[in-house]
């Protein structure tokens, strides 16, 4: 076997490998690729968010493409810490506003300063 055959992302999805590609249809013909404002992936996350928002996103994953549904999933997921275990209340209270740290609610610290700037501008516009 060559290095090319034994490494890289394709090897992770070979029969018996540790990961299942979420974008490929499952036995029900549904693919669990990123949808909505938060780019929700994997069936288990659709199940979790269905319970949280009271809507069967597993029966029809396309509902996440509907803006009001996507906004509700985003807000409730951030409020409850569903995405990373961190939630809005960890970063925003009556005494603190940690705009940069709050990026961890969704996706680590990727582009945290840029997104924090957008958040501050939006919050200022509201208030």
Automatic annotation (TrEMBL):
SUPFAM superfamilies: Lysozyme-like. This is Glycoside hydrolase family 19 catalytic domain-containing protein. It comes from Neorhizobium turbinariae.
């Amino acid at each position: 076997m060559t290095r090319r055959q034994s490494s890289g992302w394709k090897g992770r999805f070979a029969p018996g490998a540790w990961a299942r590609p979420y974008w490929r249809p499952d036995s029900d013909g549904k693919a669990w690729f990123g949808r909505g404002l938060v780019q929700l992936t994997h069936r288990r996350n659709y199940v979790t968010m269905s319970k949280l928002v009271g809507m069967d996103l597993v029966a029809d994953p396309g509902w996440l493409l509907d803006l009001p549904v996507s906004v509700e999933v985003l807000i409730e997921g951030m409020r409850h810490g569903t995405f990373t275990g961190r939630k809005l209340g960890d970063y925003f209270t009556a005494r603190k506003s940690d705009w940069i740290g709050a990026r961890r609610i969704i996706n680590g610290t990727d582009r945290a300063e840029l997104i924090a700037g957008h958040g501050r501008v939006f919050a200022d516009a509201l208030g």
